[in-house]
Amino acid sequence: MTWSLIVLCGVITFLIRFIPLSGIISSDLPLFLKQSFKYIPLAVLTPIIVSDLSIIENKNFLLIDNFKLYSALIAIFVALIWNNVLATISIGMASFLIMSNF
Asked: I need a labelling partner for 78 at 20 to 30 A (CA). Which of 8, 64, 84, 90 fits?
């Protein structure tokens, strides 16, 4: 039973990736569907990031000692000003390091 489930999951995964690349279905998608694809990363990453920033190890929502939240706000400010991924990550991580150690 377990092996048949593993094989079935493998076949489904293969077909999901093979069919769009094989040309079996047309590659011309409707415009509204193409435009909606730009929101997928935002919709997927936002809950992950927000839950990581807001919940501390003991499952409480803290604002006072939450250095990750303050560092994220600094990183968002840097991203809005410079629009540079390397600067955003570097300054965000440096601010977290400074706040958590001092």
From this structure: 64
